[in-house]
Amino acid sequence: MPIALEPSRTYRYVLKSDRDKPKEDQPFFEFRYLSGRAWKEVAAVADDLENSAGGAAAIDSMYAMIKPGLVNWGNMIDPEMAQEIPFDLDELDRLLTMKETRELLEAFQNQGVGAEELKN
Length: 120
Known about the structure:
By secondary structure, the chain is an alpha+beta fold. The chain has one domain. A three-stranded antiparallel beta sheet has the order 1-2-3, with helices on one face. Helix 2 crosses helix 4. The termini are far apart.
């Protein structure tokens, strides 16, 4: 069966800044594999991003490109409450810096493989 049709087939991505933490404590993002049709929808958002004037609309477009594949996260701890932040796509912009957002988007587009890993 094609991988995009298997909802249980996912992959996890750990941000570079978290990879030195013990594996069981590493914050992670979990993605599903998208079909070509779903990637076309992501590409349409990317086109909007390229044509945008920047600012908040550009930032929102980056999050909108990540959300179709993001199905879960874990070990995201609220620094003020010291409690895990439950998975909620509307909270994604609360978790990441812009640099981390770009890293996560790149990893998602490469199905979990970052640019540095692709070079090797």
